[in-house]
Design brief:
By secondary structure, this protein is of the alpha+beta class. It has helices spanning 5-15, 61-78, 98-114, 166-176, 187-190, 196-204, 218-229, 254-259; strands spanning 22-24, 32-33, 39-49, 82-92, 118-126, 132-142, 157-161, 210-213, 232-236, 244-245, 250-251, 266-270, 279-280, 283-292, 297-300, 306-308.
Length: 321
């Protein structure tokens, strides 16, 4: 059973990372934060719901806490921003062991400390039907410099950080072998890395015209850029960097990279004339396609054959783990 609410909040307060921009955090009705001069605030929110985003019999509590914060930090990265503070609202069942809550907080706080993100507030509640964690992350970006989804133009090239499909393949393996401990084999799923440094670099060097994080799958998130930018795209299928998983380091099937989601890599567009590095902050960057006129997306095969690329990634009310 978790601690009573007052004791739980105090436990969270003791574990909460801080930073110099938090003037007043946990302990007051509201947090008081300082935004750097000449910057604008960027804010994101994300839910993590047991049975939808994680399962306690599959995911260690440290992984659940880490993934909860990653969801928010990855959104900040996709705008080229820098995180400042997080707000965590956590609802847990009354029969949940306190050691699970402590593990969740350890995973959350460890990632927050890595990126100097203060835990500046939130809420706690009792949940009748499983764990629910709501994360809000406040970040900042120089005025008018945030990278949006709407800036792609025909002729721009399409790039992606890292490799794709590893997280979705881990879920596939967990479904097939639910009693095996797979966290060590699939770190990209259990402890994904938000690409904050890469996003900041792309913004500082003014390379990216549009950007999004790959939380719902390449096909779906690329469609978001195309919709907001009013254009289409052609993706070179052989160029898609497939994740290698397990001891054999075999590449995952293409479908996991196209439609799987939860890779938390960055998908971005850049003008054809700009030189994009092969690596940014030691993360590989791969050219996978181009932006084209129209509103359709295509997948180009190894012999130049084209087929329609239809969004088939994550969509709530249709998927469940």
């Amino acid at each position: 059973m978790p601690l009573n609410e007052k004791a739980l909040v105090e436990r969270i307060r003791q574990r909460a990372p801080g930073n110099k921009n938090v003037i007043a955090g946990i302990g007051d009705d509201c947090a008081v934060l300082q935004i750097p001069a000449g910057h604008e605030a960027i804010v994101t929110t994300d839910l993590s719901v047991e049975g939808v985003h994680f399962r306690r019999d599959w995911h260690p509590p440290q992984s659940v806490g880490h993934r909860c914060l990653t969801r928010g930090l990855s959104d900040i990265a996709a705008m080229g921003g820098e995180p400042l503070a997080a707000f965590l609202s956590l609802a847990v069942p009354c029969d949940l062991p306190q050691r699970w809550v402590d593990g969740f907080l350890d995973g959350f706080a460890t990632l927050a400390e890595q990126h100097r993100v203060a835990l500046a507030g939130g809420d706690t509640a009792e949940s009748p039907n499983g764990v629910v964690a709501d994360i809000i992350v406040l970040g900042h970006c120089p005025r008018s410099k945030a990278i949006r989804r709407s800036g792609a133009h025909p002729g721009d090239l399409v790039y992606v950080t890292g490799t794709l499909g590893g997280s979705a393949f881990a879920i596939h393996e967990l479904g097939a072998k639910p009693n095996r401990r797979l966290a060590g084999r699939f770190p990209a799923h259990f402890f994904p890395k938000p690409r904050l440094l890469a996003g900041k670099f792309l913004r500082q060097k003014q390379l990216a015209t549009a950007m999004i994080d790959l939380s719902d799958g390449l096909s779906t998130d690329l469609a978001h850029i195309c919709q907001e930018s009013g254009c289409g795209a052609e993706i070179n299928m052989p160029a898609i960097p497939l994740a290698a998983t397990g001891r054999s380091r075999r590449k995952v099937p293409l479908e996991f990279a196209l439609h799987g989601g939860e890779d938390y890599e960055l998908l971005f567009t850049a003008p054809a004339g700009r030189k994009v590095p092969a690596r940014i902050e030691n993360v590989p960057i791969t050219l996978i396609g181009r932006i084209i006129p129209g509103k359709r997306m295509f997948l180009k095969g190894p012999k130049g054959e084209r087929q329609r690329l239809v969004p088939a990634g994550w969509e709530h009310f249709r998927h469940r783990i």
